[in-house]
Design goal:
Length: 405
């Protein structure tokens, strides 16, 4: 039997984790008071009732919480605090490696540059890391250390009012096609991320594309991802979450994606819209085969998928079973700890209970997370770290008498 206590003690990763979707509700209330941000409720229970729910009627309702969270993350101190608390929350449930993603340009304004935003988030994460790794059990080598990476998110599109930076972009280029403006913002972010990584030596390990898929194809951001690719910045792309296999195909071929965020509709040939693709079943089979062969890992977020897909009424209907059947590399992630009211441990519990994961499946998923992470070190350092994780995992299995075979 796979117990909750066993899952809690396992070393885990979270590779798909949005900073602005994972603020402690109590912290949100404090920051809103400090920065005079109006919230729909003044208590934690009130916010959980009105905003941060266990279930949502649609994607629009799910996204409501982000505007409040982004609104309070407009200073270096707020960004640093939230990053620190997020790392501590992950450490408390056994997460030993996490990749925090967010769109820095949502926080850029006349008093806060992209560099300042990235440094503020890193300050919070590094403080939590250093505190954890100062423990005797870690220093002695008895337990593996905590590590993290930062992923920067470009947005497929942004409405007016999203941030001061985006509003300025829209105004300066008001006579340009809007999609060209979105693409330019992505390219600016890629350049800034590489510059800050190289000059300030921050663990900025990857470049992401998030936002509305339908109507805003990944290919529009090809130049930004080509820049990231040529400067050795790894790539993960939100794809196949609200659009079909074509979106995943673009992410892999046009944006050089090393991992895919969600990939929920990978096996849905009926969602293919390109009339040039006549053999839809064959296209899906070839795409899945390519993903499997290249070990392109899919970042699975069960709870948020259930909350944002009205057609997904039960997790037993999730496409994970097909992914597992095709022997794809998958790892379970939270997406948004607060908005989805979940943890990595909770996601694993759901996978076991609803999808029938065995102890071997759990182990494979967790180890894939470490192996396919964008670990901010050399290849040899990463191999050593993964080996330490695997050894520690075996110790936990023995402690709880769980058969890992």
């Amino acid at each position: 039997m796979i117990t909750d206590e066993f899952l809690l003690h396992l070393p885990k990763t979270d590779l798909h984790l949005h900073l602005d979707g994972s603020i402690r509700v109590a912290t949100l209330l404090e920051l809103a008071h400090e920065y005079h941000v109006d919230l729909p409720a003044g208590t934690e229970s009130g916010l959980r009732e009105k905003v941060f729910k266990d279930s949502y009627k649609d994607l629009g309702e799910y996204l409501v919480g982000f505007k409040y969270m982004t609104a309070v993350l407009q200073t270096e101190s707020a960004l640093s605090r939230v990053a620190y608390e997020l790392a501590r929350d992950n450490q408390d449930e056994g997460v030993r490696y996490m990749e925090v993603r967010f769109a820095p340009q949502l926080h850029v304004h006349q008093h806060l540059s992209c560099e300042h935003v990235l440094k503020a988030v890193n300050n919070g994460l590094s403080r939590a890391r250093d505190e954890f790794n100062a423990k005797e059990v870690v220093r002695s080598g008895a337990e593996p250390p905590f590590a993290y990476g930062i992923l920067v998110c470009a947005l497929r599109m942004f409405p007016k009012g999203a941030s001061e930076y985006y509003d300025q972009m829209l105004e300066v280029h008001k006579h340009s096609d809007s999609k060209a403006v979105y693409a330019l913002a992505s390219l600016e972010l890629a350049r800034a991320a590489v510059q800050v990584r190289d000059e300030s030596h921050l663990p900025i390990v990857g470049f992401d594309l998030a936002g509305q898929e339908a109507g805003y194809p990944a290919v529009d951001h090809r130049e930004a991802f080509a820049y990231a690719h040529k400067h050795f910045l790894k790539k993960t792309v939100h794809a196949g979450e609200a659009f079909g296999p074509e979106s995943i195909f673009q992410a892999i071929t046009d944006l050089y994606a090393d991992r895919i965020g969600h990939g929920t509709h990978l096996f849905d040939p009926d969602m293919i819209q390109d009339p040039a693709i006549e053999d839809r079943e064959g296209f899906v089979a070839d795409l899945a085969q390519f993903i499997a062969d290249r070990r392109i890992t899919l970042e699975i977020c069960l709870t948020s998928n259930l909350q944002t897909h009205p057609d997904l009424t039960d997790l037993s209907q999730h496409s994970y079973s097909k992914m597992a059947g095709a022997r794809l590399s998958t790892t379970f992630c939270t997406d948004n700890r607060t908005i989805s009211n979940t943890t990595v441990t909770g996601e694993l519990r759901k996978a076991i209970d609803s999808l029938g994961l065995s102890s071997k499946d759990v182990k494979n998923s967790i180890i894939y997370g470490f192996k396919r992470s964008f670990y901010p070190g050399t290849y040899l350092q990463k191999r050593q770290y993964v080996r330490q994780i695997i050894n520690y995992y075996h110790e936990i299995e023995q402690q709880f008498a769980v058969d890992g075979v």
